[in-house]
Specification:
single chain, about 150 residues, five-stranded mixed β-barrel, 10 strands, about 40% strand, elongated
Amino acid sequence: MSTFKFTTLTNSPDSAQYESACLGVDADNKLTENDIGKAVKLAAADNYVVATTDDEIEGILITIEPATYNDGFTFGTVQRRGRAYATVGTSELATAAIGELVVVDDQAAVGTAGGLVVYPGAPTQFLWRILRIETGTGAAGDTVLIERV
């Protein structure tokens, strides 16, 4: 067995596409630092909101800025490509395998700490796949490395 392992790429400008955006449902429902690492999706007010179960992963929240924009929305950065670590969720009983496409599973509530949770699914537009099983065998609770295809 080789000793090389796929890892996250942190310094290549081609490895990830970052986008600054307003975050949260509205100015009264802001995302916080506890939401960093969660999957997000584009919403109607030119903003990103935390994705829910079965949603495709449009991006991953990576920073929250101290300033607000657009009459009170939180502002931050979303990673739209590249690689990220995720936890295998419990919505699918099957074990996740290398190469499988994934969608969002139950994530922690907005404002509650918790990262990206995924399970094997059938996304059609925003394709993320399992590149490596980091811990365990791909069962619920195990850590996987995913990448945007």
